[in-house]
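Researcher: Let's try something more involved. This one mixes different molecule types, so please make sure each is placed in the same coordinate frame as the others.
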Amino acid sequence: MSKVLICAEIEDGRVSDATLQLASAALSAMPHSHRSIAFVGDDLSEIEPAAAALPADTVFLIEHPALKNGDAGVFDAPVSVLSSLCQQEDPDAVLLARTDYGSNVGPRLAFRLGQSAAQDCIDLAVNPESGRLAVTRPVFGGNAMAVYEFTGDGPQVAVIRPGCFDSAPLSGGFPEVIRFDPAGAICEPRARLMDTVAAQAEGVRLQDADIVISGGRGLGGPEPFSRLEELAELLGAAVGASRAACDAGWVEHERQVGLTGKSVTPSLYLAVGISGASQHMAGCSGARNIVAINNDSEANIFQDARYGVVGDWRQALPAFIAAVQDLQND
Amino acid sequence: MRIAVCAKQVPDPEIPASRFKVDEGSLRAVPPPGVSPVVNGFDLNAAEAAIRLCESEPSAVNEVTVFSAGTDFVMEVMKKPLAMGAHRLVLVDDPALAAIETDTSSTVRVLAAVLHEEGPFDLILCGRQASDWDQAQLPMGLAETLNLPCITLARDLSLTGDGSLRVHRALPDGYQVIETTLPAVVTVSNEYGEPRYPTLRGIMTATRQQPIRYSLADLGLQTQDPPPLRLKRLFIPERSRGCELIEGEDDADSGRLLAIRLREEQLI
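Model: All components are placed in one shared frame. Result:
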């Protein structure tokens, strides 16, 4: 029987959704595997009751002061303790979520174990002939898909994009809970987290918004974003932007939606002057309805949009805003 | 203090999706004819960061060397960081590297060897990820191979008084301040700021400069056994086009009708 190790994350004191998705990814790709879930932290007493009910065979609890918040930003400590756990447990596969933690720890863990990780996987399967994992990952900014297969016989480390698998149930399992002593693996720190600075949030948070209105390169400058703000105010929406608009300095980087930037899941995502490069779509593909205004009928965004206007936003957007006002006054 | 920047030549990511093709047999992207490759955008952010450190700390930083491993280099393209202000360009240029292009562990081995040959370096800067294979793991692999700290997603870099490096690490909602001992591997994100345009003088200087070249044999390397992760398939996903286009008498009318349609669907 193959062994899978899931590297868990804790979010707001709870087992993160992305972790539960890893559990269901493991179950669907390797249904008969032995599944372990490893938690790291400085104090796991709060998470322990929830961890002990997860649908897995084993739960590892690894506590050390150096593992506080997963050694955020530095990640030396979790890489060391997880590689030491892997040496003891010899898993066939190690799964992490493509979060800040997983996308840093995954590759470093893989290389420390003499392997190479598969980053940003959106699908996972086992090749019945080789018994090794095959992963699908978007490449060339999502313009193409690549299927990679692990070779050799070392641990197969896959970092999985959140949102690609349903979440496994949070309870109902009876795993054996094992405390793993990390003391021998922790080294003198080489880097330290000195401070965390939160961006000044204005208006509705992008990640929480039910409607997101985003502008891109097609807007041509910073001024048109004030029209988007105006519309956002009417609709109680948040304003986002493509990377091109952020890099040009038209809006702050905190507004960036995309693979590098935020992922949003509103019911309505209105994209104005955004071509829909797959880099951007990776951040809004979770939206229930994408609506596009763009003057290029060939633009990628229309592949994913449910409603669209092919035309100049300079005419279409003010008329759209005026119509929204009229509808609201009726 | 010497800074190394790792840079990769990639197909132009601005190629519109409709013109983007792949060869499913050779597992390669096929750029449209006449479209030149570029230096990976995030790697230019890394070069910019190295050059700015050099300018802001002239007493501490005295050299920026750009490294690349690959083949079929287009020299005007790869010289861009030199034109921006980097001092040296080192290319591991070997046809054997084409076959292992998608295997990060091979590239890590090659870059680690050439960094050792040309080293020591106090700081190794990389782009946060490449726009072709989007792996975002070469810097982590280098850091592990060289046993160095790896701080990712820098949006600001400065030297501290005690010889450490202060990194502002981009987060979705703000940033972390990390201080790391040197040497270290640091990846640079687009939030750092746009790379500068080369000046005419910079371009002239770069034109006269010749890169330092290595083959795999020069580094005592051979191509490796099967890589731990092998590319098996490359394809362009099919997309269904179910977009309902709203067409009015003119663009303004279309905008108005769109609002009405969205209200009908109770989306606004």
